[in-house]
Design goal:
Layout lengths: L2 H32 L1 H12 L2 E9 L10 E4 L5 E3 L5 E7 L3 E5 L6 E4 L5 E4 L10 E3 L4 E3 L7 E5 L22 E5 L8 E5 L12 E4 L2 E2 L31 E7 L2 H4 L10 E6 L8 E13 L8 H7 L13 H5 L3 E13 L3 E13 L6 E15 L5 E15 L13 H7 L24 H6 L1 E21 L2 E20 L11 E23 L3 E24 L20 E24 L3 E12 L8 E12 L4 H4 L4 E15 L10 E12 L4 E10 L8 E14 L4 E20 L8 E25 L3 E17 L6 E5 L9 E5 L7 E4 L2 E4 L5 E3 L14 E3 L6 E11 L2 E11 L2 E4 H5 L14 H4 L16 E3 L2 E13 L9 E15 L22 E2 L6 E11 L1
């Protein structure tokens, strides 16, 4: 794709739009002048029939309620109370006004010329809160599945480039782990544990009714000498300021309506819309400063001089290489939004830009996003409704030479940690110091010869039509398109290393299109006893992906001529030429029934049938049922008269969901032409290529199936002072899809099959919240969530499956993860380190007592997955100040510290490289060769102050056009209590083997940052 042409086209469109807008405004002004006199007369007449109403809205304790809605009854005329709970509204003489606020009973009263004090009462029916459940909504009182709703006030504070990061520490049973600290990098989200060997455990994300593909929308980085790098996070195109709420569907009853894609849970994202009342204009601006959260402790120059025995390793300098590579990254984030609701529709428009510098020099992320949400109703009683949601974004990522497979010597952070601190940064000529070593280079020099840019344009839009055929019966249609184009340019210029010394340029282009059309009918019946909702529908979704890659070498030196990405014309032969084009389709039929009797007893049943082109001809369709019951004990006589139990509901559910995230075409045979299989023809003996079979077909391949049972209890006690949820679940994955060796006489070496065996996640989830204090001047709300999960593999028909590649000297082919019966997914399979002998060499336990040390002595260590995860969130308000604190933590897990093994091992002292202080003080001999043993297995337990936000709300009661100003300062990743010696205990490097995922491997990735943000939010 030519981004320059695209930019010019967009610039021309913007220019034409500006001209059109100017003409329209000018015409409107001219017409306004012509009718100025008549408008003045009309205004005078209507003004005489209006009266001004002022007042203050307070909560049940007498504290002001900012953000309450004051509406003239029977009209769309309304205002919102300011930070002091005050309001002013003009209404018709003799009218009534209604005051409402979420969680409180609305109050209606006659307009008065004297100031009105309105004190609202708590509404114990917070159960009337509306939750998004997929293809519809349901009140909290009627929900029978396990789901959690987050509103904007619940989101994780700080710099959040993608919506998945908003969930961190906020939802019980949901674990959010970064694969890297690089801006825009991928994030691993798991709901209720890891349920697959082959693939990741990413949930399905649905944005305004459009299910997204979990595939990447940008190319990965090609290996030009430092290992290949992963694609950027596909969700970072969304502006998180546009998000109104996030609903997390956890159990099968909630997620089964999404069938073959719901096995890892479903995250439904709803963006903002206009609110009734005056139109609102909101501007938010912030500036952040980021530094590396935790520098690793390696020997300083003076310590290194005392540690070495060879004086040739002292090069006379004094350099902290981490300080040379890391920096203070500055982030600017600005967004402007407009929202308005009318009697028949609502509108929301936003524009935002974020520019984030990474904490590693030369890395950054920029994004510009625009969004339009519009809804309008037509005909009698709003019979027809049309809603359009559209977002467009352009992101630009500049990366540095980091990767997960750079090997023992191939990427920036490794060289930074192992660099000898006595090397000076530059030599006497002002050039970067040349270490003159194979497999080890000046990290600052690596940055100077490397460039990596990824530019992605993504547009997501859908139109939803709703037509009420008769009262209760509604037809709905949803048409959506998610399209992205991306280009990645990676360059290493001619250099003095042994990594592509003549230079190399690689360009990768990527296009994806996700098309959706859905038709469904809903029927609702409501009376004093019965409440019935029925859904039946059809969905068709098509996914198209294509890409090309090419490159060339023998580049001109950096700074000479035109950059390769601006003039990709090879001066030598092309290299790395490849391409692909794939498509797959999903056709589905679904239905659901929700029934509630007298508010006491609830039943939910659903079924989805999914047909996918990804699976074999004998298993094109999968069927995913669910069933759930709910019992509202508060409605029973024995609890109806108590004021200590406001709500007590028991839930139980069972259901099945699927996982279809596998490669396309793997059920079909694949062929290629090969000279090695060819033959010579005719007298001149021309070689004719023969046919080679690359893949064994399997027409029986089908979905992985997750069967889940859930029992839950929702409660609200003591006049809503204490509220919470408790869930027990059992979640089993069967029919695991794996690529295994083919049977004898098969045409290829391996085949994709559904294997027997299962992965079982059993656990408890608990959420507790309380309004501890609530007075006129001070309030304090506290909530805590936690989950305890036991993961176990059962009935696997093979002895074990290995994964988790280890990098380091002599580590070729070594793997740290094992999947085997009786142990958790991602357990570790390592030799047991028993200390050092008197000479400082490793002592490895001979577990089978055969007198030799080899892989037969390896031991299985459980614990890549933490046993317990938790979050604690506190919100306090004192007068105009507000303070929010969010803590997260985990316990019972381990990480394999591949950074320690690879980059800063003790034997570096014998090879002109640096070492970690802990290893130097361990008593190990510098001649000790590193071994992938339990010595590098460390507890990943931690407790972290994840975010803290202090804000001040300025009084604006005397400024009619200004609704509020909030000035705030936010800190993220402020402190971490842990014994883990790496950069971050909450990390996972995707070092998969043969498509089987790795868990708990900490390769030397881009470190995480600590950030401080100063921001302001202004509402007009």
């Amino acid at each position: 794709m030519n981004f320059k042409d695209t930019y010019l086209k967009l610039e021309n469109i913007a220019f034409l739009a500006t001209i059109a807008l100017s003409v329209t405004v000018g015409q409107a002004q001219a017409e306004g002048n012509l009718h100025k006199e008549s408008n003045t007369i009309a205004a005078t007449y209507f003004q005489s029939n209006k009266q001004t109403v002022t007042g203050t809205v307070k909560d049940e304790t007498g504290s002001p309620l900012p953000g309450a809605t004051v509406l003239e009854v029977g009209t769309n005329n309304g205002v919102i109370t300011d930070f002091d709970g005050k309001f002013t509204i003009q209404v018709k003489s003799g009218a009534s006004i209604q005051v409402s606020y979420i969680g409180y009973k609305p109050e209606q009263l006659a307009a008065s010329t004297t100031p009105i004090d309105v004190q609202l009462e708590l509404d114990a029916s917070q159960l009337n809160e509306v939750l998004v459940i997929g293809y519809g909504n349901q009140t909290k009182a009627d929900v029978t599945g396990s789901l959690t709703k987050l509103d904007r006030a619940d989101f994780k504070q700080g710099i959040n480039l993608s919506p998945d990061n908003l969930l961190q520490g906020k939802v019980a049973g949901v674990r959010v782990v970064n694969s890297s600290g690089e801006p825009g990098a991928g994030i691993d989200v798991t709901i209720r544990g890891v349920g697959s060997i082959r693939s990741g455990s990413t949930p399905l994300f649905v944005v305004d009714g459009v299910p997204l593909a979990n595939d990447n929308v940008s190319p990965g980085g090609t290996n030009v000498g430092f290992g290949s790098s992963n694609a950027k996070n596909p969700l970072n195109f969304l502006n998180t300021s546009d998000i109104e709420s996030i609903n997390v569907l956890k159990d099968a009853s909630a997620a089964a309506i999404y069938g073959a894609r719901g096995s890892n849970g479903v995250v439904i994202i709803t963006t903002k819309k206009g609110n009734i009342g005056e139109p609102t204009l909101n501007f938010e601006s912030s500036m952040g400063f980021s530094n590396v959260a935790n520098k690793l402790d390696v020997l300083s120059a003076s310590e290194y001089r005392n540690a070495i025995e060879d004086p040739a390793f002292d090069h006379g300098g004094n350099t902290d290489w981490q300080d040379e590579i890391y920096r203070t990254g500055v982030t600017y984030n600005n967004s402007l939004s407009f929202a308005k609701a009318t009697e028949s529709g609502n509108y929301y428009v936003s524009l935002s830009n974020i520019d984030q510098e990474g904490i590693v020099k030369q890395s950054d992320f920029q994004r510009t996003t625009g969004r339009i949400n519009a809804s309008e109703s037509f005909f009698d009683d709003e019979r027809l409704n049309l809603q359009v949601n559209l977002t467009a974004s352009e992101t630009t990522d500049h990366g540095v030479p980091t990767s997960d497979d750079g090997g023992s010597d191939g990427q920036l952070i490794i060289h930074t940690l192992m660099a000898n601190p006595t090397w000076p940064l530059k030599d006497a000529d002002g050039e970067y110091t040349n270490f003159n070593m194979n497999a080890h280079y000046n990290p600052a020099y690596l940055l100077s010869i490397y460039e990596d840019e990824t530019r992605t344009v993504r547009v997501l839009g859908n139109a939803q039509l709703s037509f009420r055929i008769i009262d209760g019966l509604t037809y709905k249609m949803n048409v959506g398109v998610d399209r992205s184009t991306s280009e990645r340019n990676t360059t290493i210029y001619p250099n003095l290393t042994d990594r592509s010394p003549n230079g190399m340029y690689v360009q990768s282009d990527f296009e994806t299109t996700n098309s959706l059309i859905e038709h469904y009918l809903t029927y609702s019946l409501l009376n004093t006893t019965h409440k019935l909702d029925v859904l039946a529908g059809f969905s068709y979704q098509k996914f198209e992906r294509s890409g090309t890659t090419f490159g060339f070498d023998n580049l001109s030196p950096k700074g000479e001529g035109v950059k390769p990405e601006n003039n990709p014309t090879p001066s030598n032969s092309l290299i790395n030429i490849s391409g692909f084009a794939q498509e797959n389709e999903l056709q589905s039929y679904f239905g659901r029934i929700n029934y509630a009797y007298n508010g006491k007893y609830m039943v939910t049943a659903s079924m989805r049938a999914d047909g996918s082109t990804r699976f074999g001809s004998n298993n094109k369709y999968g069927y995913f049922p669910s069933f759930a019951l709910g019992w509202n004990l508060t409605k029973e006589d024995f609890l109806s008269n108590t004021n200590k139990v406001n709500n007590l509901k028991l839930r139980a559910s069972w259901g099945q969901t699927g996982n279809q995230e596998v490669q396309n075409k793997i059920t079909q045979e694949s062929y290629a032409l090969s000279g090695s299989e060819g033959y010579y023809l005719y007298d001149n003996l021309d070689l004719v290529n023969g046919v080679t079979i690359l893949r064994t077909p399997n027409p029986d391949l089908k979905w992985e199936v997750v069967t889940q049972f859930n029992v839950g209890l929702d409660f609200t006690l003591f006049n809503e002072k204490l509220y919470g949820t408790f869930d027990f679940f059992n979640k089993a994955t069967t029919d695991a899809i794996l690529n295994i060796p083919s049977p004898v006489l098969s045409p290829s070496e391996d085949v994709w099959v559904n294997m027997d065996g299962k992965i079982v996640n059993t656990g408890f989830e608990l959420t507790l919240g309380s309004t501890i204090v609530k007075t006129d001047n001070f309030s304090w709300n506290l909530d805590v969530n936690g989950a305890a999960i036991h993961n176990e593999i059962k009935d696997l028909p093979v002895s074990y499956i290995l994964s988790g590649k280890v990098s380091g000297p002599g580590m070729s082919g070594v793997q740290a993860n094992i999947f085997t019966n009786g142990h958790s997914a991602g357990s570790f399979y390592l030799s047991e380190h028993a200390g050092f002998d008197e000479n400082g060499f490793d002592v490895i336990t001979d577990r089978n007592n055969d007198g030799s040390i080899n892989s037969q002595d390896n031991f299985i260590y459980d614990g890549a997955l933490p046993k317990v995860t938790y979050g604690l969130n506190s919100q306090m308000r004192y007068k105009n100040f507000d303070l929010s604190l969010a803590f997260i933590g985990q316990a019972g897990g381990y990480l394999f510290n591949n950074t320690a093994l690879n980059a800063i091992n003790i034997n570096n002292l014998a090879s002109d490289r640096n070492v970690a202080t802990d290893y130097y003080e361990s008593g190990a001999n510098p001649a000790n060769s590193p071994t992938a043993s339990s010595y590098y297995l460390e507890k990943s337990d931690f407790f972290r102050l994840n975010t803290a936000r202090l804000g001040y709300n300025f009084k604006t009661a005397n400024i009619n056009w200004l609704h509020g100003v909030n000035l705030y300062v936010t800190g993220t990743n402020l402190f971490t209590i842990t014994n883990y010696s790496g950069y971050d205990p909450l990390i996972n490097s995707p070092k998969a083997t043969g498509g089987n995922q790795s868990i708990g491997i900490d390769y030397t990735s881009y470190p995480t940052a600590r950030t401080f943000i100063l921001g302001v939010n202004v509402k007009f």
